[in-house]
Amino acid sequence: MKIVVDRARCTGIGICEAIAPTVFEVDDDGGLVLLSQLVPHGVAAEVAEAVEGCPTLALRLEP
Ligand code: SF4
């Protein structure tokens, strides 16, 4: 699965980083950095939780 970020929606709150820090990182300017474009093995549940937990609906998964 591929992780897609709608940068127009992302406000850099960092909830995704708190849930799945191996995949999401908010830089010093509040920009979201994807540490992996694809969902790594072993963290699919965390990534799914982060996608669902984003308050601005900025994240989605694509096949
Ligand atoms: S939780 Fe959503 S709005 Fe917050 S940094 Fe992650 S993608 Fe952006």
TrEMBL record:
The keyword NADP does not apply. Coiled coil: none annotated. SUPFAM superfamilies: 4Fe-4S ferredoxins (SSF54862). Pfam families: Fer4_15. Ferredoxins are iron-sulfur proteins that transfer electrons in a wide variety of metabolic reactions. Signal peptide: none annotated. The lineage of its organism: Bacteria, Bacillati, Actinomycetota, Actinomycetes, Pseudonocardiales. Keywords: 3Fe-4S, Electron transport, Iron, Iron-sulfur, Metal-binding, Transport. It comes from Pseudonocardia cypriaca. Its cofactor is [3Fe-4S] cluster. This is Ferredoxin. Residues 1-29 form the 4Fe-4S ferredoxin-type domain.
